[in-house]
Amino acid sequence: MTATHTGAPARTAALDCFFVRPGEDERDRLAGRRVLGRVTYGHTGRPPVLLGGAPLVRAAMTGAGAERVTEVWTTDRPVRSGRDGDLVYATDGEHLLCSVRVEERGVYREQVREVYERAFALMWRLGHRELLRMWNLVGDITGPNAEGMEVYRDFCVGRAQAFESWSGRIGGMPAATGIGALRPGIDLYFLACRSGRPRHLENPRQTPAHRYPAAYGPRPPSFARATLLEPGSGGRPVLYVSGTASILGDDTVHPGDADRQCALTLANIEALVSPDNLRRHGLAGGWALSDLDCVKVYVRDAGDLQAVRARCAPAFRATADVAYFQVDVCRSDLLVEIEGICR
Ligand SMILES: C=C(O[C@@H]1C=C(C(=O)O)C=C[C@H]1O)C(=O)O
C-alpha cells in the first residue's frame, strides 16, 4: 500500500482507476471515493450490466487458471447510472463511462458502426461530448470474418464510418485499445467528459494510426496515441496512453522476437509521454516510463510471458498496478502490446 493508494484527496485525480484481484477488497483502495464503473478482465465475455449503481463490463481476457483482474474506475463525485437499450452507463456529472457488447457475427462492420453511433448519440444527449479513452476487446481479432476479411479490419471499417458521421459533433479520436479477447464478440467501453478539454497526442516515432496506408485494411484505425486531460480544480493532469506496440512509422519491427518487441514498445511509450513530445504538441509537462500506472501488458504467446515480465519489471514503478494478459494483438506479427495511465 502506497501513498497513491491511500489517496490523499488533493493529489487524487477527479477520475481515477486501480486494479483488484480475487481475494483483494476494493474498499481498501476506495478511500471514500465512488465507483463509476468496473471492468472485469475475466473468463467470460458477457453483456455489461449495472451492478450496485455502476456498470460492470465483463470481458473474456483470462484463460482458465489465470487470475482475473478488475479495473475499478472511481470518482470524487456522486454517481448516477442508467441504461439506453443495451448500453449501460454511469456519470458523475463530468465523466461518463459507457459500455456495450457486440455479440459474435459473421461480419461486424455494420453492427460496430451502429453501436458506436448509439454510444455517440448517448454522449451527445447527456452532454459528454469529448472522448477520453476507448477500449475495444475483440474476439478472434486476427482471424477471418465470414467474408475472409480479418476481424480487426472489419471492425475498423464500422468504427471509422461512425467517427466520420459524427465528426464535428463529438470531440476527436481519443486514445484507444483494440486488442484480442478470448471469446467471440466485441466488448466496448469508453470514457468521455463534459467540460474538460482533452488533447489527443501522436507519437513522433509512429505514423498516426488514422493515416495508416490501405495495406493495413480498407479503413484505418480511429484512435490517437494518447489523450491528455488537464486538471480541473485541485486535480492533476492525466495522460491516457493507447495500446502501444512494436511499430515504427507503420511497420512492425522485430517480428518473431517478443523481447525486442517489448523493448521497442517501451521506447515508443517513453517517447510518447516525454516532455519533448508534449512540447511538440504545444503543451507543458511530461512523464517518464516509471510514471505509468494501471498498466496492461498483452502478450500473444504464453511462452513469451516470462521474458516480457522480466523486461517490463524494471521499467515500471514497483508500486504500479500492472496486469498481464495472454491474448492476440491486432496484427498477427505483433507479439506484445502495452497501455497505461500517467498521472
Ligand atoms: C497496436 C496498435 O493498435 C492497437 C489497436 C487500437 C485500436 O484499433 O483501437 C488501439 C491501440 C492498439 O491497441 C497500433 O496500431 O499501433
From TrEMBL:
Domain Chorismatase FkbO/Hyg5-like N-terminal: 71-192
Residue positions binding substrate: 152, 159, 212, 225
InterPro entries xrefs: Chori_FkbO_Hyg5, FkbO_Hyg5-like_N, RutC-like_sf
Alphabetical list of SUPFAM superfamilies matching this protein: YjgF-like (SSF55298)
Catalytic residues of the enzyme: 337 (proton acceptor)
Protein name: Reactive intermediate/imine deaminase
Source organism: Streptomyces solincola
